[in-house]
Structures are given as C-alpha cells and as structure tokens.
Write a structure and sequence with these properties.
This protein is of the alpha+beta class. The chain is built from 2 helices and 5 strands. It has one domain (about 20-80). The termini are far apart.
Amino acid sequence: MSLDENGDATQGAPDDPLDLRIDTAGGQVHMHYQKRQPHYRQADIEGLDLAKVDGLLFVRAVLRHRQTGKPLSDTLGFKIKIV
C-alpha cells in the first residue's frame, strides 16, 4: 500500500480490480464488494460482522474463492441487503 503526503492510503486507477475490501476510512467500518462504490455499511450486510472478521478465515475464504470460482459472498457467508 502506498500513502499520500497526509499519510492516507492512495487509491489505484478506477478500473483496478476489486473483489472485497473492508476498511475504516471515514471513521466507520464498511465494505467494498466487487467495485469501489458503493460503501456497504454494517447495517447493509447480513451474516458477516465487519468489525470482527477473523484474518485467517478471510484468507481461507479468498483461497477457496480463487480455487473454486465461488463468489466471496458465499465463501464468507454474507449477503448484501441493498443493491
């Protein structure tokens, strides 16, 4: 990850691929899924507590996703309530 002059993470190009990212930018935990926008708040997600995602569980789910092609929402067991 690279940082800008303020110490904030820099973003890549808008067309950089994104599967899933959980972050706290803006002071509130949220998720990006398959694209940068929108930001999904915890209230928008069922089956996954963003503040308590286990790192090893996350890595295993990503590996399963890559091996099987199964969506990350299935391997991590979450559903987005809004579209």
